[in-house]
Write a structure and sequence with these properties.
Helix content: 25-40%
Subcellular location: Cell membrane
Keywords: Antibiotic resistance, ATP-binding, Nucleotide-binding, Transport
Strand order of the largest sheet: 6-7-8-3-9-10
Order of helices and strands: EEEHEEHEHHHEHEHEEHEHEEHEH
GO molecular function: ATP binding; ATP hydrolysis activity
Shape: elongated
Number of helices: 11
Largest sheet: 6 strands, mixed
CATH architecture of the largest domain: 3-Layer(aba) Sandwich
Distance between the termini: 33 Å
Membrane topology: Peripheral membrane protein
Protein name: ABC-2 type transport system ATP-binding protein
Number of strands: 14
Structural class: alpha/beta
Bound molecules: adenosine-5'-triphosphate
Radius of gyration: 24 Å
CATH topology of the largest domain: Rossmann fold
């Protein structure tokens, strides 16, 4: 089953569209990134999909249920990790997880089993009886994720899951999300304004000013905007450029230090260039288009993280 379907989804606040009629799908088991700069409409979309906001127009289903007509069914099947801490700082890790299970009606014995296994999975087993106020920012974020898994959802929405964390804590959250998906097959729907995080996902939808500008795998999107670029410094750049054009039929442009070759398969081409250009290659570097280039290509302006 498709985990999320949005059809012409729109949300208006006053006289402006926060989400301006977007269409996309998320497949079950995917790690899906909703990428966009501040104010793009990511949180608003997640708000609609998690039944906290009503769309002005259009339709969305989550786990097969319409978010407006069957909000309870949707809520049972999703977990929602907010940017802000929801856990009670004065309660312990265990108490917070158990409280969540009560709110969702999970039988007590089952809840205890899940609590122990989730604290273990999140690397928080030794913090079980510690109050939340005594935990580090990274630990609190992992506890938030554990809390949202207590009712065993199939789909987890995470709004900027690594915002405000230091690099080490970010890596830990990512490793954990990868394990969640691998071990439990949970669909992950993340909003992010970090290009590098979107790069790590199976699929990316890029949102700008309420409009979906592109949607696909990171590699597929990058391939649509241009070729790889190979920078070469050689013993004779003029000869290298001539040979690359005439003998190998490649597109070549000038570069402040040497020459630049544009080709779809940059890394694979390098050995051939070294052996067939008829010059000594002193240095070589290959760069591929990034999601930043994709964003610029589709919106005409730079991405601000
Ligand atoms: N309750 C509201 N009332 C009026 N305008 C709103 C409301 N919520 C959001 N907006 C506006 O809708 C637009 C999209 O906001 P949203 O929070 O969805 O963006 P975002 O992509 O999640 O941004 P961020 O990365 O900063 O969280 C913004 O212009 C915002 O000011």
């Amino acid at each position: 089953m498709t985990a999320v379907v949005c059809e012409n989804l729109r949300k208006r606040f006053g006289d402006s569209d926060a989400v301006a009629g977007i269409d996309f799908k998320v497949e079950e088991g995917d790690k899906f990134a909703f990428l966009g700069p501040n104010g793009a409409g990511k949180t608003t979309t997640v708000g609609i999909l998690s039944t906290l906001l009503r769309p002005t127009e259009g339709r969305a289903t989550v786990a097969g249920f319409d978010v407006v007509r069957n909000p309870d069914r949707v809520r049972d099947r999703i977990g929602l990790v907010f940017q802000e801490q929801v856990s009670d700082g004065d309660l312990t890790a265990e108490e917070n997880l158990m409280l969540h299970s009560v709110l969702y009606g999970v039988p007590r014995a089952e809840a205890r089993k899940r609590m122990v296994s989730l604290l273990e999975l999140m690397g928080l087993a030794d913090r079980r009886h510690h109050r939340v106020t005594t935990l580090s920012g990274g630990m609190r974020r992992r506890l938030e994720i554990a809390r949202c898994l207590m009712h065993d959802p199939r789909l987890l929405f995470l709004d900027e899951p690594t915002a405000g964390l230091d690099p080490h804590a970010r890596v830990m959250v990512w490793e954990l999300l990868d394990r969640l998906r691998e071990e439990r097959g949970i669909t992950l729907f993340l909003t992010t304004h970090y290009l590098a995080e979107a790069e790590r996902c199976d699929r990316v939808a890029i949102l700008d000013r309420g409009t979906l500008v592109a949607d696909g795998t990171p590699q597929g999107l990058e391939a649509t905007v241009g070729a790889d670029s190979i920078q070469l410094r050689t013993s004779d750049d003029a000869l290298a450029a001539r040979n690359a054009r005439s003998a190998l039929g490649l597109e070549v442009s000038d570069h402040p230090e040497g020459i630049r070759i544009h080709a779809a398969n940059g890394p694979e081409l390098v050995p051939r260039l070294c052996s067939e250009l008829g010059v000594t290659v002193d240095s070589v570097s290959v760069s591929r288009p990034s999601l930043e280039d994709v964003f610029m290509h589709y919106t005409g302006h730079a991405f601000q993280e």
